[in-house]
Amino acid sequence: MLVLRISKVITVAAVALYASLVAFGNITDYGSNFAFVQHVLAMDTVFPDAGTTYRAIDNEIAHHVAYILIIAAELATAVACWVGAARLYRARKASAGSFNRQKSWAIAGLTFGFLVWQVGFMSIGGEWFGMWMSETWNGLESAFRVFILIMSVLIYVALPDGEID
Description:
Layout lengths: L1 H27 L1 H13 L17 H31 L5 H6 L2 H25 L11 H19 L7
Helix pairs in contact: 1-2, 1-3, 1-5, 1-6, 2-3, 3-5, 5-6
């Protein structure tokens, strides 16, 4: 069904737009968003008696490197999803086999986005650096929403498409 294929294009493009806007915001409002990364890595707002504070990174250069890596990962997600959406759009009327083969960029971009928000923010930020303990610098709910959205689109896009009626 053509509408199903177009739907897959739109959902991948929506994730690409989101990742683009997040990266754009991080670049254009570097200071505000850098403060978030800095506080999470420094673990300066976790529970005062937390036994995990030995993991804290209190080096401003390391904070900038981590933040730049986050922005680069968001940009990589955006670019791969944009390329994936474009490739799927171009193949929307092609055979099922051809359309399915064009999913690689979209699947790669969505997988990378999953890794950014689930591994980067939820696992590393949330668990390793104890972001869950912070009332002020806690992005877990938002990261969870994003990675569930991305995973849902990934599953949807990865489902094999049949021939158009």
